[in-house]
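Researcher: Sequence recovery benchmark, item below. Answer with residues only.
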């Protein structure tokens, strides 16, 4: 594979992302832990020890720094910090503070996510995001996290993929069994309004702690592509599932763009990928260019004053050649966006580790493999290649 090289913009974030529940292990006070152990939920396998990163985070950061990355996005776990309503664990806050300090000591700029899908069991029992007072409870939690991110953290993410939170809430309310063959189910409108309000309250809380912190949130971009004559259908389909959440970030310091594949839309709605399309381990169509479309769509909606950061992008595969090819294609799309004047401030791959992908360990997105018995970490060829671009301080151009 032959590349030309274009320099990173000054301050460009170059890293990988993780989520607490997916890597820490034994997150026993979360709603997902309870769901994983409920036979009625039909979860394929529980998280259990996950990657044991709660105890091995130093190894994870060492490897990322050695590979050449300069940034690490990780989340703090609400269910650990506030395991019982109104009780905040100083020990857990100190734990996550050590992680911030450990990242900085290794030359990794930490991006801290305050909510990545899981909530405390007590919050779920309280009624979740749509309960009276839920927004205030989340804002209080954010304020209590101040010792974690008030010093040494430049970027804070309030809520990861709020559109997926609303989609899952819609499924639960309707009693649906799962996702359609293509596209997303309709999101719950009440949850949509609630998480947007929670985000705005969290932004206000973070800025009151330190106005210099750059705060935003991340959106799951499905890259809806209209087939001929289906432009209006596509716009109407995207609006409640994605666009309303992007537009809610217009006053933020940045917005996170997360994409993996595309969704074609015809006159009757989403159309599954052809039977002969290459698919990843998640059964998504192999489509590295998705991230470029997602960046352009987001920029068109949020406006020129909100910088873009790719906070998740990657591929679930057991073939390292395909992993490298996917990242090369994705980064070529990112570089083209930069060439066209989009304000893209960084690229963080999903995921640093092979981890718990919400019901299974079979979807291997990781740049680093994890032995499920010994927890030994081993960088993959894709991780070595991608991290090496950090040493080069350049993006590939195919």
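Model:
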């Amino acid at each position: 594979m032959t590349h030309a090289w274009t320099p990173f913009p000054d301050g460009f974030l170059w890293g990988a992302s993780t989520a607490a529940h997916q890597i820490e292990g034994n997150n026993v006070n979360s709603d997902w832990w309870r769901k994983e152990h409920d036979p009625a939920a039909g979860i394929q396998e529980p998280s259990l020890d996950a990657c044991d990163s709660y105890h091995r985070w130093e190894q994870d950061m060492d490897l990322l720094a050695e590979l050449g990355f300069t940034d690490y996005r990780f989340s703090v776990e609400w269910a650990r910090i506030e395991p019982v309503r109104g009780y905040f664990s100083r020990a857990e806050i100190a734990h996550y503070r050590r992680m911030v300090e450990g990242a900085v000591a290794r030359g990794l700029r930490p991006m801290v996510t305050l909510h990545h899908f899981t909530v405390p069991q007590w919050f779920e029992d309280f009624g979740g995001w749509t309960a009276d007072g839920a927004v205030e409870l989340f804002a209080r939690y954010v304020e209590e996290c101040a010792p974690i991110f008030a010093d040494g953290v430049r970027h804070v993410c309030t809520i990861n993929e709020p559109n997926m939170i609303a989609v899952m809430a819609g499924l639960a309310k309707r009693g649906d069994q799962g996702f359609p063959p293509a596209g997303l189910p309709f999101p719950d409108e009440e949850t949509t309004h609630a998480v947007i309000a929670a985000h705005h309250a969290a932004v206000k809380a973070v800025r009151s702690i330190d106005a210099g912190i750059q705060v935003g949130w991340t959106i799951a971009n499905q890259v809806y592509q209209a087939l001929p004559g289906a432009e209006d259908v596509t716009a109407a389909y995207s609006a409640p599932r994605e666009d309303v959440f992007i537009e809610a970030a217009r006053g933020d310091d940045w917005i996170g763009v997360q994409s993996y594949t595309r969704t074609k839309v015809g006159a009757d709605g989403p159309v599954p990928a052809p039977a002969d399309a290459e698919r990843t381990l998640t059964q998504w169509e192999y489509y590295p260019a998705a991230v470029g479309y997602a960046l352009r769509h987001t920029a068109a909606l949020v406006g020129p004053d909100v910088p873009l950061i790719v906070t998740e992008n990657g591929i679930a595969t057991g073939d390292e050649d395909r992993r490298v090819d996917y990242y090369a294609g994705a980064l070529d799309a990112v570089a083209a966006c930069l060439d066209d004047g989009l304000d893209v401030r960084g690229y963080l791959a999903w995921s640093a580790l092979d981890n718990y992908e919400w019901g299974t360990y079979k979807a291997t997105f990781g740049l680093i493999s994890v032995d499920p018995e010994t927890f030994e970490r081993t960088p993959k060829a894709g991780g070595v290649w991608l991290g090496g671009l950090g040493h080069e301080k350049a993006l590939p151009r195919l």
